[in-house]
Design brief:
heterotrimer; A mainly alpha; B mainly alpha; C alpha/beta; B: MetI-like fold; about 80% helix; elongated; binds adenosine-5'-triphosphate; binds magnesium ion
Chain lengths: ~230, ~220, ~240
Amino acid sequence: MNPAMSGWDRFVFSFFNLDIARQYLPAIAKGFVTTVYLALAVIVAGVLLGLTLALLRSFRVKVANFFIIMFADIMRALPPLVLIILLFFALPYAGASLSAFAATWVALSLVLAAFAEEIFWAGIVAVPRGQWEAARSTGLSRAQTLAFVVLPQAVRMTIPPLTNRVISITKGTALGSVVALSEILNQASSSASQAGNATPMTVGALAYLLLFIPVVIFGRWVETRFVWKK
Amino acid sequence: MDAILQNFFNMEIASKAGVFLLKGLGMTLLLSAIVIPLGLLGGLAVAVLGSLKKKWLSVLLIVYVDFFRAFPPLVLLIFIYFGTPFLGLDIPKLLAVAIGFFLNTSSYYGEVFRAGIESIPKGQFEAARSTGLSGSQTLRFVILPQAVRNVLPDLISNTLEVIKLTSLASVVALPELLNNARQAQALTYNPTPIVLAALMYLVLLWPLVRLLSRLEHKSISMH
Amino acid sequence: MSKAILDIAALHKSYGATPVLKGIDMAVNENELVFIIGPSGSGKSTLLRCCNRLEEPESGSILVDGTDILRPGVDLNRLRQKIGMVFQSFNLYPHMTALGNVTLALRKVQGMEKEAAEEKGRAALARVGLAEKVNAYPNELSGGQQQRVGIARSLALEPRIVLFDEPTSALDPELVGGVLKVMRELKESGMTMVVVSHEMAFARAAADRVIFMDKGVIADQGAPEDMFGNPKHERLREFLSRIQH
Ligand SMILES: Nc1ncnc2c1ncn2[C@@H]1O[C@H](COP(=O)(O)OP(=O)(O)OP(=O)(O)O)[C@@H](O)[C@H]1O
Ligand SMILES: [Mg+2]
């Protein structure tokens, strides 16, 4: 870096250096793909597992519910990064090792599942008892009542909080960089230290904005769209 | 079984690393004690300014909030921590971390407070103003107390997230709980310190999680 | 004629240590409309809810059309279709249209094809005077219309008996008439009905028999003229004077 540069020039040189941006763009694009892939895998696994647990919970089997609640509590109380590090650095001592991708995916999916379970469960509980009774009195079974009467109402109520939770947990994909997963952040910061210049970080930051700004705006739209009409 | 105990619940290592971890826990609490009040204040400011219904101001605030909600907090943290030296600035680690977390946290609290203020019917403003209360008095004595109560579960939930968030500071080697646990693990070649740190987080945060579950179910059964 | 559609004997039910039904014996014959009155907490709702096992009684027997519905291993969901239930708070499914509400059980429990179920559902809605509201959602209907959809929902299943638990007490006064009219027509078409309600005028006009419940037992019963015109039971007199101000 040229010490004679003015403050502004130095800022542009360090953060918005087009040559360097061009040079490291492919690496960051690769990270982008990994991030998207990981995020989708987390959403699918987390939401499905969470929904399954909430459905199981609605059958109100004492032992099962004890374990479901315990799982949800622990996963909501532990910082996701602690979980990732446990899975990646501690699990090998038990003779089982996970790749960086798998460790991040499992950890974030479990966390999302815990929150999704609580959200779905709250939705199921919020459906008035009369709905169960009306449906059962016409001969629908427990499972049919859940599927056709209770869940459609519950899911509607759960969409806004679930969307927000999904967004905040998929942003956690950046935590994968701590276990050297080559997603956006990791690619950007290693490029930055290689280049001795912060521009790859800027590119990485823009990549995140590109990915998540639409998602955040979508979340806002969902919040106004799915207000439950009485 | 014995091997598992040796590896994950090694008493000898736990007792050696214990004090070091508690020091880390102290830093975690300190960081939380800095970020939570600042975040609450920032969020409140964002929401109150937003409620003034000045078009350009509202747009600006939404941009601020959405911008920092879109950024993964770790990216923000690393950007600030590794970026500022390129500007010739040398800010202390704790400050860099606190700034990063503040930007993220105030955005989230801002959204919560905004929802709370919007949940109060217009009649409340009108009733208060008709008795001669000023705008800020109305906000302070009539609107905010109700708003806060309406979004209390979300405020607590967000606070829980902030405390968990502090674990990210380990990435820039701020000596908080997770950082110290990882250092102890590296020194001892044994994951017991990480397990121990996880347990500390659980002890610290589990009551909050329970409280939250209770509040959420209460607010649902009330309506 | 006088064949019992609903036959209850020695029915007992308690919540925890509190007995709520203390030995109910009651038979409802085909085409009969039995009207149940009684103070709040006397167990009227509990009795109706036991009749399709929304509540589980402790002991006693309940025969519906000759089948003991308390027998273990009974196909409850099939049986429930024979016993219509109309709720005070309607309990319509808010995410489905009127037609969707009425046809859900036809399709999912009886396994009917969509077209056949909808044809039947339309007929049931027409019967309660809502032919033109088939595609309306509950929040687009008045309370009275919602309750009529609730009635159509049970009628579509061709029940042997319909139980009404205070079907009009959540309604604004001007909407009560429409629902009672539907119930009258239902009675005239030969439906067997048990109605818990405070609509005494309706009872006088349409009920074959009035049952007075008090503290978990049937304290008195008789023809509406006798029960209202010349009440003998002390508690019944008290109750009637209280609700007629
Ligand atoms: N789920 C329940 N758990 C405990 N007690 C109950 C429950 N449901 C009803 N009870 C009690 O059982 C008694 C009878 O209730 P029920 O609803 O059958 O009365 P009711 O005659 O229908 O009264 P109302 O005219 O107010 O509707 C009441 O004392 C009530 O408090
Ligand atoms: Mg009742």
